[in-house]
Fold these 4 entries.
Entry 1:
Amino acid sequence: MPYAARPGRRPPFVNSRLPHPPSSQPPVFTPREFRDALGMFATGVTIVTARGEGGALIGMTANSFNSVSLEPPLVLWSLGHKTSSLPAFSRATHYAINVLTVEQRALAEQFATRGIDRFAGVAYRLGRSGVPVLDGAAAVFECFNRSQYVEGDHTIFVGQVERCSHREGASPLLYHGGVFYTEHPLGSLSATVARPMEK
């Protein structure tokens, strides 16, 4: 059961008087090993879209997306500091996170390619705040750019969701180990697993 904090009391697991503050140990792996290990966590694939200076459309493929809170409705994603679109996303008041379907793999690759017009030939509409919302996405979260936190070599964006929608039955585009995957239903639980364990 969650701990219900009383006024003036700290949760029992908080120790603010440690005699020697803990410190992290140096990594014993290479950046490549770290990247490869992270790649073993399967994720969905999104395209984050916004408007830059003068109303220019900006967008990029990202799989660093997660939920944060239901009340208020918050989500997050992160962007590397070497990414050229970081200043534009940082200044934007709103952005949309478009969760891709398996049919949109080509879009994921297009919005990850440098030096091209990423919106060329892309079907979209303007959302509530004027940012592009991609047609056919599995889900869309239209967000107010609520807060940003610099951690390491990335900036974490926390968005407050103002509008969201989704397509029932859409098959998501998945990413694992540097490879795109499609969703394949694995069926219901086996009889052995579904049956309660005997004691």
Note: The domain at 42-185 is CATH 2.30.110.10 (Pnp Oxidase; Chain A).
Entry 2:
Amino acid sequence: MKPATLNDGRHTPAQIWNSAPQLAQIPTISPSLLVPAGSRVVVVAPHPGDEVLACGGLLQLLSALDHPLKLISITDGSASHPGSNQWSAQRLSVFRPQESVEALRRLGLPLHSLKWIRGGFCDNDLAAREQLLSPFIARYLQPGDVVFTTWRNDGNADHDAVGRATAIACALTGARLLELPIWAWHRPAREAGRMPWQCARKVRLDTWSVARKRHAAHAYASQLLGDPLIGLAPMLPPVLLERMREPYEIVFL
């Protein structure tokens, strides 16, 4: 998870997620139509926790439908607090995977059968390693997979690079690609026209799914705490946690 520019003061109070009229017009789609029966679900997350922010509710629904699940964590998120002694890269390389295990447990996912691949790439540098990402991701895909990853225009360099690389990997293997916006929702309302609304579909979530998703996000203690000693704000700011109250998730087909 990366803070993009949510904490730099340039964003207006009206952001896409709470102001765009197009949100109410997005067609709904059921998980069973989004992912055919028997298909394996693969989530490619740039950083630990992106799978919760992007599709924590959808993962619960697909797990309940008995779809096999695979999570590919491209990085271990150890560079999320640059310059911090409290949250050093060495500490985070151990701590953040532990947070992920707890978050997945809070979602109610079957940890005993979940296949989890950790890529070990360095975060904040994925665009420079994009040519390596596609073959790495493709190694774990197969025809018929339905693959969820961050939107290639999400607005965060790592998210964008993983989105592009996953698109290539899916084209190479015959898997189906579905993209998920995370930080894009927090752009100023005037940028709503950049969203591919025609490709968007809305997956409805019930109250319990939303509650479990929010509970899972709070497993990332390192991301809820910045480092005041160096003026580093939390990676998960309140405005992002507030958006997670919405009773739906958006997928770009």
Note: DSSP finds nine helices and seven strands in the chain.
Entry 3:
Amino acid sequence: MTALFALATAVLWGLADFGGGLLTRRIPALTVVVVSQVVAVVVLGAVVLGTGAWREAGPQLWFAVGAGLVGPIAMLSFYKALALGPMGVVSPLGSLGVVVPVTAGLILGERPGLGQFAGIAVAVVGIVLAGGPELRGAPVQRQAVVLTLVAAFGFGAVMALISEASATVTGLFLALFVQRVTNVAVGGAALWAQTRRGIPALPPGTGPKLLWGLLPALAFVGLADVAANGTYSIAAQNGPVIMAAVLSSLYPVITALAAFAVLKERLRTVQAAGAGLALAGTVLLAAG
């Protein structure tokens, strides 16, 4: 069950990242983050009301608030690092956030077997290589490295926090709702401050009509991200956190495959090798 939900998380996060990447070619990244999360808040709000999940409010929701505070910071740091580039270095480094939940699992007393440790090592190497790291070329700016590491730590922290935010399925709905409301509050404040400084929320010469036309894609990104957080939480609560974290972190492989299928981007040799290693690591983890 843990492996199934963790792999579902990887697929959802991978597709959400792919969709978000495409949208940032049309509108600013911060606008993508805020609008997609607003859609998620509306949908989750309806689910919370329909299931009576608000009755499960308790101190554990502070974990959801923490995840909501960290998430937008991590995402914006990642987008800014991608803008500084080179993407072939930034993207794989961003996946190193898996170290945070894996460490949390070890602290909590999880001790994977030898085969699982081998699977973790192989999968993590595969995840990094699947991003197509650039081993030669232009030097990487120090700022890009710092921003990427901030993003990686943030992504890992969100994984660790959201898994502690609920103990039941209905409680998970409430936790995800609180997380997204916090996301919107943080991202919305940043967007407001940005527009006050004269940086438009939409490209010059466009207006709400463009946003409305992109709403289905924005909704997909926001809801896929929410669903991924939900499936990860279920995976982490029903099995080893380390296995859930590593398998969920296969999302760069999904993003690369989506780019290959939709945009006809050719996979570099290092990416194909990384995808193969990630798959091999998954098999070792599941078998262990």
Note: The chain has a mean pLDDT of 81.
Entry 4:
Amino acid sequence: MNAPLPIDTATAKTAPTPADLTITVRDERFNRGTNPRRWWAGEPFGTAWHNALSATFPRGEAFFIEAVKAHREGADPKLEAEIRAFVKQEINHTREHIAFNKLAENAGYDIKAIDQRVAELLALTKDRPAIANLAVTMALEHYTAMMAAEFLANPAHFKDADPEVRDMWRWHAAEEIEHKGVAYDTWNHATKDWTPFRRWKVRSLVMLTVTARFFKNRWVDSLNLLEQDGITGWKAKWGLFKYLTVSPGVVRRIFPAWLSYFKPGFHPWDHDDRELIGLYEGEFEDALLPAE
């Protein structure tokens, strides 16, 4: 494990990331040469939801990397080291979700339309100010951290999943929790000359926009994948809604964490949930690579 780098008092006031936090790169590989049953979540609705999520990750995580790297100049040594570790973790996540997406395609799912939609949306960001892309990244990183904490805290989400698929999602979740403050701290660094109100207003408005698009697009994507399984109409809509809001109910369960994002002075590390990483880290100890 890395020795923690010192954090100056001025930064600590706006970035309560734990001083002893170490972001560790876990170089794991999953879903190579495996052939799980078609519904690896144990049923079609969880399978569709997670396939829809995974299909967005390769392009999405590349976008996150570039948005954060664009604002690393002048960062203090601790944040600079965390950005480097964040990039390494996200590169590995991209690699593993490419493998997972191939698994989905080999099982007969057509996810090319999802990837194309993501590509089109990202093309619209080319002419936007770089700080806008960082604000979107910060909001989406909060989503990944919320879902990651829920997936690790509540075994019901993957209790019937294919074991290797389950391990991939839990590995990804552990690292999302670990680096959940990096984009936010980079935002604080990049907007250090802004007023607190301006920071709050922009991040809140961006979160509302991101939320609307996130759920609209993932809902459409999931229904498309369910249709590929022969599940359509109200059966598909009710089954997906029940999966997301009733049992296991990831959307319902993350709502308080989502709401906390709008609190003035919010920071992702207001809630230190590193114990969730500890619950599973032993499974990956042979692959631990401390970040430089």
Note: Confidence is low (pLDDT under 50) at residues 1-14, 284-292.
